[in-house]
Amino acid sequence: MFERKEYKENALRQLDGRKAVPAAATLVSFLILLAASSGDAISLQSGEGSGTLLSIAVIFIHGSVIIAYARLLIQLYCSAEKVTFGSFVGGFSFFLQGVLGLLWYMLWVTLWSFLFFIPGIVKAFSYSQMFFILAENPKISIFKAMNLSKILTRGHKCDLLVMAVSFLGWDILSVLTLGILQLWLIPYKGMSYTNAYFALKQEAFRTGILTPADFSQ
Prior knowledge:
mainly alpha; 0% strand
């Protein structure tokens, strides 16, 4: 079963007394992505030939941030001890998994979106666990990570959609704080999804559709 409320409640407990580092990681991630995207936008407006290179750089940076943040969330899940900002920074050493994973994810979601908008959304949720898989098991190939994500989310894509919608009220409230609330909200969302990932994984083990060996290299 998919216990959405339980995952969110656990997220609050897991972040209790440990909000500073994920909030700082959220702020730094936002500033990095903002700087990269702004540079890309300026290049496109000016018509410079380097626009393509900057777009590639944005994807590179975005993928690196995703994997680093996912590894931080997994550490918060696996340990009750306080984490350091160095844990987030250390996650950037696995940038290759993040970049390749993001490119592969974007490719397939885009291809499915060409058929119609809804298939693109469905596949986005189907592939959504691959970044947790890559962050937890860096030696796994991106192809295998995507296939594992499809298995984990089988029968739970609607559950993940409902979970995403359940944060909508907080997102609206965040607008009233000029986005400042996101420094708390993004870690809260992230930990909730991390709890969901590990729950889906345990369910897969329990039902026998996957084994721990499937997550090895």
